[in-house]
Design brief:
The chain is an alpha/beta fold and about 375 residues long. Helix 3 links the parallel strand 2 and strand 3. Helix 2 runs parallel beside helix 3, helix 11 crosses helix 13 and helix 12 runs antiparallel to helix 13. The radius of gyration is 27 Å and the shape is elongated. It has an eight-stranded parallel barrel with strand order 1-2-3-4-5-6-7-8, surrounded by five helices. It folds into two domains: about 250 residues, TIM Barrel, CATH 3.20.20; about 100 residues, Up-down Bundle (Chorismate Mutase Domain, subunit A). The protein has 13 helices and eight strands. The structure holds phosphoenolpyruvate and manganese (II) ion. Manganese (II) ion (MN) binds next to loops.
């Protein structure tokens, strides 16, 4: 069944959709205070709070359980916000449905496990509840897609993906590496699926949250899910990455939001003209690359005759410096030229090696032939 656009399940939605709320439900007061402050932000339409918390190691706070569902219900009644929480098994689903949670999400430690996802899919079958599927903690697009398909297979059409980054052993500036190519590829293979970015779990650090939100907007994601707590430093989980509702308001105000399509005819005509220019220039670039390739072949034959290696490091150095300097003179960024010529030069060396090896094995074969 076709996936329903966000507008079909979130009334009067304007881009971007902002989902906000604490990492964990802690107390009734904390929940209501957060929600009352967050509802003041126009773009915040969904309140989030974890009721059951999948913690990495035991003996840490594992969520308030059923009490939190009562508080979520109060949040809905008092603020009119839609409510959402994480579910990881049948019992969670049944309780969330019983207390009228509006939207469920499947966490990164659950979407990694097809048995658990199927259990959730079976538990929600026959309902119309919207479900958001976080990416699995490891960078496996097929597993993410599979989890989404299992939920879709249960007849759920109000679906979204949440990009929360991928766990790595090597620690970087991110808690979870965003690997933007993966959600972009998901969008390519499932174009109707809304994708929401979770900058809080990607960053693990509140100072990076605005930057990641903007990045998500720049690649046309549909919204953001941001952890927001009235007193972040006192949060019972994920304290370092949560921001106050006031900070979130500022963040949302400063977001530069663009859309992928428009109905403005003048703009479309202008864009089409510019794209024709780009198409023509790309054609010229390809022709130039093909001419370059022909010369690379001639170089390979000459190198073979003189027993010279395909890769000559001094030449690579010279070439790179020369191209970077020339590029800079006409306004091209050093990083871009460096990356471009790495690819071009690597391909050239590979081609030369292939040609030279082919000549060697051809003459070896000829030598093997018995003389007549
Ligand atoms: C959460 O949203 O609080 C959470 C546990 O996220 P994730 O599943 O992405 O780690
Ligand atoms: Mn969290």
């Amino acid at each position: 069944m076709a996936i329903k656009p966000l507008q079909k399940w979130i009334p009067n939605l304007k881009k971007p959709l902002v989902i906000a709320g604490p990492c964990s439900a802690e107390t009734r007061e904390q929940m209501l205070q957060a929600a009352k402050e967050l509802v003041q932000i126009e773009d915040v339409r969904i309140f989030r709070a974890g009721i059951w918390k999948p913690r990495t190691r035991p003996n840490s706070f594992e969520g308030v359980g059923e009490d939190g569902l009562k508080w979520l219900k109060e949040v809905k009644e008092e603020t009119g916000l839609l409510t959402s929480t994480e579910v990881a098994n049948t019992q969670h689903v049944e309780l969330a449905l019983k207390y009228g949670v509006d939207i469920l999400w499947i966490g990164a430690r659950t979407s990694v496990n097809p048995f658990s996802v199927q259990e959730i899919a079976d538990a929600i079958k026959g309902t119309d509840i919207p479900v958001m599927v976080k990416n699995p903690i490891n960078a496996d697009l097929a597993l993410w897609r599979g989890a989404i398909e299992r939920i879709q297979g249960a007849g759920i059409t109000k679906l979204a993906a949440i990009h929360r980054g991928f766990s790595t052993f090597e620690k970087s500036k991110y808690r979870n590496n965003p690997l933007w190519r993966i959600p972009m590829e998901l969008k390519r293979i499932m174009p109707d699926l809304p994708i929401i970015c979770d900058p809080s779990h990607i960053s693990g650090d509140r100072s990076l949250v605005p930057y990641i939100c903007q990045k998500a907007m720049d690649i046309d994601m549909d919204g953001v899910m941001v952890e927001s707590h009235p007193t972040p430093d006192q949060a019972w989980s994920d304290a370092a990455q949560q921001i106050t509702p006031a900070t979130l308001a500022e963040l949302v105000k400063n977001l530069n939001v663009r859309t992928e399509f428009t109905t403005d005819r003048n703009f479309s005509a202008e864009l089409e003209d510019l794209r024709k220019d780009i198409d023509r220039i790309d054609h010229e670039i390809l022709e130039a690359l093909s001419m370059r390739s022909n010369i690379v072949e001639r170089i390979a034959h000459a190198k073979h005759k003189n027993n010279i290696t395909a890769l000559q490091v001094h030449r690579m150095d010279q070439l790179m410096n020369n191209r970077i300097n020339n590029g800079a003179k006409i306004g091209l960024r050093e990083k871009f030229i460096k990356e471009l010529y790495h690819v071009i030069h690597e391909d050239s060396v590979k081609t030369q090696n292939e040609i030279m090896n082919a000549i060697v094995s051809k003459s070896a074969k000829e030598n093997e032939k018995p003389s007549e």
